[in-house]
Amino acid sequence: MRPNFFHHLHPPTIPTQQSRWRYTLGAGGTAVFLLFVLAITGMLEMFYYIPTPEQAALSVQTITYHVPLGALIRNTHYWAAQLLLIVMAVHFVRVVMTGAYRPPRRFNYLLGLVLFVVVVLLNFTGYILRWDQGIQWALVVGTNLLKTIPAVGDTLYTMLIGGSQPGSATLIRFYAWHIFGLGLVAVFFTGWHIFRVRRDGGIAVPPPRLREDDARITRFELVQREVLAMILIIAALFILAGFVPAPIDAPIEQITTLANDASAPWFFLWVQQMLKWGDPFLWGIVAPSVLLLVLVLLPYVLPQPQESELGRWFPRSNRLARWSLVVVSALIIILTLMALLPGV
Ligand code: HEM
């Protein structure tokens, strides 16, 4: 049989240690599968979604209430997107907490971070596509942050919005970014990322001379585990989609002032909270960029985990990187909770 991408990802046998749920949590594979579900359900939604300010929210309501299986497809798309953010964060935490970013996987860590940013942007652009009352904070405050960037801010804003204020050009641009621009980038980087996983020798475990456990599983057993995971994910998605509908509000009539309860999507609540402290450029652009930079630099400036300590959680040798991640995560979680509490 000719070698292909599937064979590249599934060699005849792999060390059992690389396939343990309790080590990988299956989070990277789950993220790939969720992206696949998002692509299929998103394509189905495109048959009915209309990207104009007058029709967008109404067409989403049509999908939800009138199209056969429309609610299931839309809710599945919505929940797969929320779960992807969580699963991706879990995968990221796993990579840092096991020291799996150690060379030769440092470059793949960067590819992963690019994917992280792209997936957040995909979620943000998808959220705007609802064009209902609920998205106004993101549309007005979120996009206005661009204007605060010195020298290029106004140009960036006009390019993104398609004019001097949000309108029909904005919606069509977000639509194009969501489906085409960011979608293609996500497919490209996911392919590259999982190609690199195998190129770097598969999931990080100690080299054979340092390995305590020499057991291996076959390609067939690996695929069996993957299929089981896919069935469980589909079941979880359908349960969520069946019981908890995706939000949709009344269409936006005029984007003028913001309601008091206007709020960012949940994954940007921490930024919304920081914006209450004043300077939007400092808190809305500089602070999140600094946090991202800290994550980019983790594998480059902090002590590396030792080879012998790979393949398990919390290697002593990368304690500093682990604590840095704990601090960044705690900050984001505390800010999110503060944004949820009224009056803070
Ligand atoms: C949509 C986002 C992502 C997808 C689809 C994805 C997918 C995967 C898959 C399938 C694997 C192999 C299985 C596993 O380790 O669970 C993997 C491994 C890896 N990923 Fe990701 N990933 C994503 C985001 C990230 C992020 C945000 C990072 C970190 C910045 C990252 C860094 C890595 C590294 C370093 C490995 C190798 C781990 C090891 O050898 O133990 N990935 N990824």
Textual characterization of the structure:
The protein has a single domain (5-258), classed as Up-down Bundle (Cytochrome Bc1 Complex, Chain C). Strands 1-2 form a two-stranded antiparallel ribbon. It has 13 helices and two strands; from the N terminus they run αβααααααααβαααα. It has 344 residues and is an all-alpha fold. The structure holds protoporphyrin IX containing FE (HEM).
Supply database-style keywords.
single chain, 344 residues, mainly alpha, Cytochrome Bc1 Complex, Chain C, two-stranded antiparallel sheet, globular, binds protoporphyrin IX containing FE
Largest sheet: 2 strands, antiparallel
Number of helices: 13
Question: Which residues form runs of ≥5 with pLDDT under 50?
Answer: none
> How many E-type strands?
2
Helix proportion range: 55-70%
Tally of distinct domains: 1
Per CATH, what is the topology? Answer: Cytochrome Bc1 Complex, Chain C
What is the CATH class?
Mainly Alpha
Q: At CATH's second level, what is the architecture? A: Up-down Bundle
